[in-house]
User: What shape does this take?
Amino acid sequence: MAAEQEYTYLEVAKHKKEDSLWVVIHGEVFDLSTFKKHPGGFEVLFDKGGKDASEAFDDVNHSHKSRGMMATYRIGKIKEGDRQVEVKEEKSVPWLLVVVLFALLAGALFILRG
Assistant: This one.
């Protein structure tokens, strides 16, 4: 019997896009990329993408049928001992803001030297 695939929370956190959407529910990893018919809408799933969704899943009180469907999307489990990490989004400076600030600085220097 093959060993079950194990993932870290950091690996799961990389999958938070519509075409690659993973969540963790009670230590199990699910790939929900193809699950587009969620009764609450795909946005509900997308909001939890790359994260532990256990609390949100339990809060909804899913039916036995929906819990049974989970096996279809299960791809593995979280590595034993791995702890959830908060992955901060890299914030990029909008290029337009950089250009505007540069133009203002250049204008100020021109006026001061003028």
Remarks:
- The mean pLDDT is 84.
- The radius of gyration is 22 Å.
- Strands lie at 6-7, 16-17, 20-25, 28-31, 74-78.
- Residues 95-113 form the longest helix (19 residues).
